[in-house]
Design goal:
Order of helices and strands: EHHHEHEHEHEH
Radius of gyration: 16 Å
CATH class: Alpha Beta
Distance between the termini: 22 Å
Strand content: 15-25%
Structural class: alpha/beta
CATH topology: Rossmann fold
Largest sheet: 5 strands, parallel
CATH superfamily: Response regulator
Helix content: 40-55%
Number of helices: 7
CATH architecture: 3-Layer(aba) Sandwich
Shape: globular
Number of domains: 1
Length: 159
């Protein structure tokens, strides 16, 4: 977790454990259990990731939910505890539960001003359909998988 007294709290809602690991790797100092051969090759070619990072990873705290229902419950709990999330990264597809759009509908009821980044390699909804239902605003963004590390950092740190 974070050593900063007031970390920027983020929630990742995705059914893939690997995606949660990727977000933690990009945004926190949390040690990874194992590093793949490609990671080691990238470090050899470009240097350790932390050395080139412009993000102070100690000011970000990443929590996980593996289904939409669990994610909405975590947002409720965070609000009740007075420790709201600053941003949610939300997957479009999370079988067998709610998909991203359904989860977003519930999130908007619980926390109407919570910024959400919808993430996926594909979508069951067009971006135009999502904007028509949820409105065009800075509260809703889109991030395509596989995602760009710098783009994730910029979204996570906000304005």
């Amino acid at each position: 977790m974070s050593t900063h007294p007031n970390p920027r709290r983020l929630l990742v809602i995705d059914d893939s454990e690997a995606i949660h690991t990727d977000f933690r790797r990009i945004l926190t100092d949390e040690p990874l259990k194992s590093r793949g051969e490609l990671d080691l090759m990238a470090d050899a070619l470009f240097g350790p990731e932390a050395a080139g990072s412009s993000v102070d990873k100690t000011v970000v705290e990443v929590d996980s939910a593996y289904q939409g229902e669990e994610g909405v419950a975590r947002v409720r709990e965070a609000l009740a505890a007075g420790r709201p999330y600053a941003l949610v990264f939300l997957d479009y597809r999370m079988p067998p539960g709610w998909n991203g759009a359904e989860t977003l509908r519930h999130l908007r009821r619980v926390a109407p001003t919570l910024p959400v980044v919808l993430c996926s390699a594909y979508s069951d909804y067009s971006w135009a359909e999502l904007q028509a239902e949820f409105g065009e605003s800075r509260l809703l963004r889109q991030l395509r998988k596989p995602f760009n590390r710098q783009q994730v950092r910029e979204l996570a740190l906000g304005d």
